Amino acid sequence: MAGSSVTGLPAGLSLQGNVVSGTPTAAGTIHATVTAACGATASVDIAINSCPLPTLSLTANSGTVGLPFVSTLALSAGATISVDQLPAGLSLAGTVISGTPTQASTATITATSPCGAVATATIMIAACDTPVIVADTLMGTVGLPFLSTLAISPNATISVSGLPAGLTLEGNVISGTPTISGTATITATASCGATASVAITIQPCPVPTLVSTTLNGTVGLPFITVITATPGATVCIQGLPAGLTATGNTITGTPLGTAIVHIIATSPCGAVATLDIPIH
Question: Are 261 and 238 in contact (CB under 8 A)?
Fold first, then answer.
């Protein structure tokens, strides 16, 4: 009586009568043998191949928060796509991932072949780096010339708020002579939207100090006084009566009449202080 046998049957397949069926879960070779009643045999080999991995490639696999992103996926015929943890701001339409990401993270793209094999690729979205901004001068004074050159990261833009009157921003240089005090905020904005700022402070023009060693005099009596002012200030003496002379910051002589000697000290930035010395 004729009969048949099967060896090497991969997992997932079974033999029922003369039918081999099922969904194989492993590769292998089925060896089927048929034996005639007279003892003659015939055999056939059936190969179960491994499930081939799908191909998967991306035109772009990295981006930056705040910058437009687009990546086109190429994959094997018949394969399907799924995406895990796509950053906010990006979306998948067909085989294109696009948008402007609003958060940094890594997305995993999976291609699955019809037989179940998978291939993966990743897209990394990096955080938007904070730009660098440096000012070579951070402080100035009302009434004095001011100049500050700004150094910023490539491709960043500059904006300024609160710039005191008398100062202007041209390119990356702030210059002029401030007429009021205040604090300006200079902001550098990266192309991806991150910002960094630096402050420039303009101080009021300080009033100079003004001191006299003698604060009054008498007609007909010898008189001497030395005027001391803040370094850098200029001193002007007005209203000297006959008999008194000023040499530098020293007043000497014998006054011949009454008067009010008016002394003015002016700082380099323009602030003034005054002092009166009466001659009785």
Answer: yes
CB under 8 Å to 94, separation ≥6 — which residues?
A: none
Nearest to residue 58, comparing CAs of 108, 116, 115?
108
Query: For 26-44, what is the mean pLDDT?
Result: 81
pLDDT band at 2 (very low <50, low <70, confident <90, very high): low
The CATH number of the domain where 148 resides is what?
2.60.40.10
Which residues are CB-neighbours of 58 under 8 A, at least 6 positions away? 71, 72, 73, 74, 109, 121, 123
**pLDDT > 50? residue 1:** no
Domain count, the chain: 4
pLDDT at 29: 81
Nearest to 148 by CA among 198, 101, 213: 198
Partners of 147 in beta bridges: 175
- The DSSP output letter for 239 is -
For residue 3, the model assigns a pLDDT of 67
pLDDT tens profile 107-130: 999 999 998 999 999 999 999 999
Cα gap 217→246, rounded to integer Å: 15
Mean pLDDT for the chain overall: 93
To the nearest 10°, the Cα dihedral for 93, 97, 103, 109?
Answer: 100
DSSP 27-55: -EEEEEEEE-TTS-EEEEEEEEPPPPPPP
**Are residue 60 and residue 31 in the same domain, yes or no?**
no
Show the domain range for 26.
Answer: 3-48
206 phi, psi to nearest 5 deg:
-75, 140
Q: The pTM is what?
A: 0.71
Residue type, 6: V
Half-sphere exposure of 10 (CA within 13 A, CB side): 17
Residue where one domain finishes, among candidates 106, 126, 146: 126
